[in-house]
Amino acid sequence: MHVSRERHSDRAASPSLTPPPVIGEPDRDRRFEARVTRDEKVEPNEWMPDAYRKTLIRQISQHAHSEIVGMQPEGNWLTRAPTLRRKAALLAKIQDEAGHGLYLYAAAETLGVSREEMQDQLLAGAAKYSSIFNYPTLSWADIGAIGWLVDGAAIMNQIPLCRCSFGPYARAMIRICKEESFHQRQGFEIMLTLCRGTPAQKAMAQDALDRWWWPVLMMFGPPDAASPHSDRSMRWKIKRLSNDALRQQFVDATVPQARFLGLTIPDPQLAFDEASGQWQIGAIDWSEFRAVLAGNGPCNRERLRRAREAHAAGAWVREAALAHAEKRRARAAAPPS
Ligand code: FAQ
């Protein structure tokens, strides 16, 4: 991704935001690493290694795209929500996801990349978003499963990001996590209602769990040994916990919840290990994850097509907002009559 340095140098020119004087490169790197080790936050106007900047732009923009594309699977059920109360909660949740996308694009912009550039990358199919959003929502229970499991996994992954070394990302994550916990609870409550309902409703909930369980485990990313970015991101305190450690935390938290619902986790090898106090899972089919990342998941093409259609359909709103801003600017600049 091309990184525009204009915004960075604009900020550097401001007297109050002038970065520390340039010193020898190796010393700069060493001092940066030492600051991160001391748990100091890195702010956008401060010097940072290019690789740190690029890693953050990659991760934050992928995260923002996930929030935006993630509105689609749930949006499919807005007109079919079973009650007015469910519809209002779902609508609020989807609006929250749009807000999360916007905070995250704004956090990435502080690193010198424009929102338009990130959006163009997404719409061109040249940027990643979470694998989980390439699966269909076939029944109302899928809306429960997304809240319970997808938001549950998102919280597990995102709570440590509140302590990320990059200030704007860490601060955005604090608010996002608060909203995600409401999302998780509304999903669990949908599942609970279905599980206490008719046998057909309970079967619908089980079917949703059967289809979402494994893709949700893949959301945490490849196993640590196959994760090219983890070591450096953990050293830089962008990531605080590894993909496998977070996946395990999620499994340990979720298995008892499934039991409470009276549902069966679709993993015949699932077993509690007394020694570690953890649930051991069977092998994840990583070929499915690779296929989804390569654009061949069940809904990749449909999700991208709808993202492009929505962007094109919103062109008039962007044009109207710009025209309005221009009119206000002109009015403010005009001499008083
Ligand atoms: N999907 O070396 P690592 C949500 C890629 S938000 C697609 O382990 P890293 C809220 C990875 O990008 C969900 N690609 O990478 C919501 C890299 O590819 P690259 C999104 C994936 O970055 C709920 C390659 O594999 N959350 O759900 C995935 O250190 C309901 C190697 O992987 C975030 O983005 C994946 N699942 O760790 C919204 C959280 N996993 O770039 C609506 C922030 C890995 O080299 C409805 N992100 N890859 O081409 C992170 O924590 C990290 O980026 C990880 C991946 C953990 C996702």
Describe this structure in words.
The structure is a single chain. With 337 residues, the chain is mainly α. The protein has helices at residues 6-13, 25-37, 50-69, 71-75, 84-109, 115-123, 140-158, 167-195, 199-218, 230-235, 243-261, 286-296, 300-313, 315-333, and strands at residues 271-273, 278-280. Phenylacetyl coenzyme A is lined by residues 58-59, 62-63, 66-67, 70, 97, 128, 130-131, 146, 150-151, 154, 157, 219-222, 227-230, 233, 239, 243, 293.
Characteristics of this structure?
binds Phenylacetyl coenzyme A, two-stranded antiparallel ribbon, 2 strands, single chain, 337 residues, 65% helix, mainly alpha
Name the overall outline.
globular
Strand fraction: under 5%
**Low-pLDDT segments, ≥5 res:** 1-16
Please list the strands of the largest sheet in the order they lie side by side: 1-2
Structural class: mainly alpha
The succession of helices and strands, N to C, reads: HHHHHHHHHHHEEHHH
Concise description?
The protein is mainly alpha-helical. The protein has helices at residues 6-13, 25-37, 50-69, 71-75, 84-109, 115-123, 140-158, 167-195, 199-218, 230-235, 243-261, 286-296, 300-313, 315-333; strands at 271-273, 278-280.
